[in-house]
Amino acid sequence: MDTLDQRIISQLVTDARASYAEIGHAVGLSAPAVKRRVDKLLDMGILRGFTAVVDPEALGWGTEAFVEVHCHGNVPTQRIREGVEPLPEVVGAYTVSGPADAIVHLRAADIHHLETALERLRGVEFINRTVSTVVLSRLLDRPPQA
Amino acid sequence: MDTLDQRIISQLVTDARASYAEIGHAVGLSAPAVKRRVDKLLDMGILRGFTAVVDPEALGWGTEAFVEVHCHGNVPTQRIREGVEPLPEVVGAYTVSGPADAIVHLRAADIHHLETALERLRGVEFINRTVSTVVLSRLLDRPPQA
DNA sequence: AGTATCACTCAATAAGCTTGCGTTGCGCTT
DNA sequence: AAGCGCAACGCAAGCTTATTGAGTGATACT
């Protein structure tokens, strides 16, 4: 995991479908050398995989919200994960410091869909109370250090 | 934009480096047909591009926080965007309903780095007050409808 | 000094991309 | 009802890229 690896990763974050030759040219290596490093990074779990960046609006996922989740008593983080993971509208979930126990990031087709997703979230047994903050507009949404 | 396109997108979200032939096999099309559809989706902006999924821990971006931003008076969303965009630690920013004006998602190497990023965020001229919520653990982080 | 290890380049083959071309299905006009 | 134009498809050819093996040089350890 040296500076060469980091530059390769940075290239892949910018364009995950770039050819190994292109990446190699950018970082000063041959194509096979790049492939071997990428394979190793995947093996080590530093690279988790490759994904497409989709315009959520275009696909009809235009509405999102951040939800503070307050639980009944002490709930282990693992159980929180298991509780929210089945909801397809959940795109992110984090345990946090402060008064709330967790923050859940919801993405839905519209306000009505968001409402039903929230209802299902509140239906999770250990969840006591939720405080929702609806997103009005997405200003920025990018990978780190791109 | 039909169901075939959606299935192609779903394949690409799962693995952005899959070959057109693989995708075609999964959705019942030939490789050239898939390529033409992908090109069109890119043209239309429905597909924004392809990126690598990196383990943030491994790259030394293990600490993150959500920050409620409160502005001085009325600030247009565009100016908020311009204000936070230069900070590399900002991975997401949203204007929201409720008492706060915006929510900013920060990602930093460690607590100290997070602190300096917060200071720089608070240094943005129109920002009045911030309320930070530090992430203790990431439970879930996934693309929608994967 | 010798040697093991590691990562690289080069080269060759296999796989995949990309484009032109002919075909088909569908809606619209004549 | 036949003809036309459009849009999308599959096939095939030529070209590019991926992938593997083999050889080489640098580094570090014995």
TrEMBL record, chains A, B:
Keywords: DNA-binding, Transcription, Transcription regulation
Organism: Halopolyspora algeriensis
Record-linked InterPro entries: AsnC-type_HTH_dom, Dimeric_a/b-barrel, Tscrpt_reg_AsnC-like, Tscrpt_reg_AsnC/Lrp_C, Tscrpt_reg_HTH_AsnC-type_CS, WH-like_DNA-bd_sf, WH_DNA-bd_sf
GO molecular function: sequence-specific DNA binding
GO biological process: response to amino acid
Pfam families assigned: AsnC_trans_reg, HTH_AsnC-type
Keyword check for Transcription regulation: yes
Boundaries of every HTH asnC-type domain copy: 1-62
GO cellular component terms attached to this protein's record: cytosol
Record flagged with keyword DNA-binding: yes
Designated name of the protein: AsnC family transcriptional regulator
